[in-house]
Structure formats: structure tokens, C-alpha cells
Amino acid sequence: MPDNDAFVICQDLYKIFKVADIEVMALQGLDLTVMEGELVGVVGASGSGKTTLMNVLGGLTRPSAGTVLVDGENLLKLSTRELTNYRQVEVGFVWQQGSRNLIPYLSALDNIKLPMTLAGRAGGDIDRRARELMDKVELSDRYDHKPLQLSGGEQQRVAIAVALANEPKLLLADEPTGELDSATSDQVYALFQRLNREDGLTICIVSHDPQIAQHVGRVVAIRDGKLASETVRRRADSQQPADATAEASWEDRFEELIVLDSSGRLQIPKQFREELGFANRVEMEMTDDGGIVIRPAHNLEQTSSQAEIQLQREIRAGEDGRGRNWLRRRQA
To answer: Domain 6-257 is in which class?
Structure first.
């Protein structure tokens, strides 16, 4: 069973999109757990399913099958009205494009007030809340500025304030630094870290940024619609001081772990498969020290799948009935 402190739980999650007569499987049995108050990065190649996962967690799309719980709420069982309320109040979004985050003809303050107004709040309360959030993202001198009067980094900080307007428990950010330079990206990441540390906000950030591991506590990698690996950031004491009153020297180290899903499946990285010559079959055995060894399989031509492929080739080629004779001998 998942840990009681788990805030996000995805189990055997599937999402299938149908385009014309073609079905595309964006998520293929994905399992993911995010703890309450955790700051997590989600990475993966284009088409891997990471944005689909964010849309499922944000209530923007319903999964085709599986389980998705957010703060104990089963998103698959919510009605359309309940799902709308969830998107307005329980979760906040920050997108890569500033035009998707902010209304261009509204001031920064009015952009922050808008989601509160849509949620039914009114009066001086929403003005106070908007000003508090502008102060929190360190833009106290930009209250009346419209998006075009703000830099890219300032726009993203206002976007974060908008996402926090209704005090959500979960913040989802999809490529929030994709259009920013490295220095500005660091400022935005620092803001996410502060919100996570000071407010205990659970945050998931989708990114192509290879350096995201430097800014979050854990990075999960999605490949082909499934969780493939995770990189955990740890702090190690690199130099123990001789004087007990002196401060130790700390450095970050990162551990990459291959994920074993609920069905016992794991994904072997492509680089390993290519270097070791893995085909579509492997050999596996337990070792005396409690480990498992995986090796490339031998005699692949004798496996059933390869034999069937060869049979079909012979039948299609019409090689004097040899394929049918082979099948009769195999069945005998």
C-alpha cells in the first residue's frame, strides 16, 4: 500500500487518444507517487507522456483506465462540476507560454484577481490577496503593469502568483523556464523552492532542462508512457570537520534508480541495450548475494516468436510449401 503521506498516487494509469482511426497510447500503465510537500521534476522526450500526465493530474483530461488520487480525491469519480471546482481551487497551473498564463489587457493585480473572482470570491479580500501574492513573488513595484510591460521572468513570476490565487494544494508547472535564459530560469526555480520550503506546497515541474535535478528534490523520467527511472538528490558530508563546532562541507550527489512498476516491469536504458547487444529476449538469474543478473539471450532463432516470424516469411515467399511442412513438424 502507498505511504500515508502520499499526496499524488497514480497506479496502472492509461490514456489513449484517438486521432481519426488511429489510437495513440500516451500513458501505458504508469505508476507514480508524490509525497505531500515534495518538489518533483518530470522529464522525458517529446511524446513520452509527461504533459499528458500533468493534464491528468490537473483534471484537464480523464485517463482511460487506472487510478489517480490527489489528496485522497479520486479524480476518475468526480463529476464534471466537481472536476471544474478542482481545477479552480485545488490545483494551480503555470504554462510555458506567457500568453496562456496571463490576460494581456489586464494588469498584474487584475490577472491575479481573475481566478478568485471566477471561484466566487469578491470584495477587498481578493485585492489584499493579490497584493500579498505580488509581494511574495517579489514584484511589489509591478502591481499596475500589464504583461507586455514585464520581462519574461517577471511574467512567469506573476503567472505563479495567479496559480496560487485560490490557495491550491498542488502546483503544476509545464516547462515554466522553457523561454527564459539560464539566469532568469534560476530565479524562477528559486521561487518554486521557496514556495515549497516555506508553504509546504506540493509542486510538480515538467521540463526538458537537463539541469533540473539541481533545483528539485527528485526527478522522475517518463519513457513510452511509463515511469522509467528516478534521480534522487541527496546531501553528503564531503569533509568532516576536525572541530565539532565547525560547519561541515556539504555537496549534492545524485542517485539514478531504475523504476520497477507494480507488475514487476522495468525499462533497461537504450544505451545499455545497445552496448550489450540486447535483442527482444534476455536471460535472467538470481545470484548468491541476493541480486539479479540480466544477460543477452542466446539462440534467439529457437524462440517461439522468432520461429513464427520465420514461418510467416516462408509462407509469404511461397517456398514450395516448406513453411507448412515446418509447421507440421513443429506441431508433431
So the answer is: alpha beta
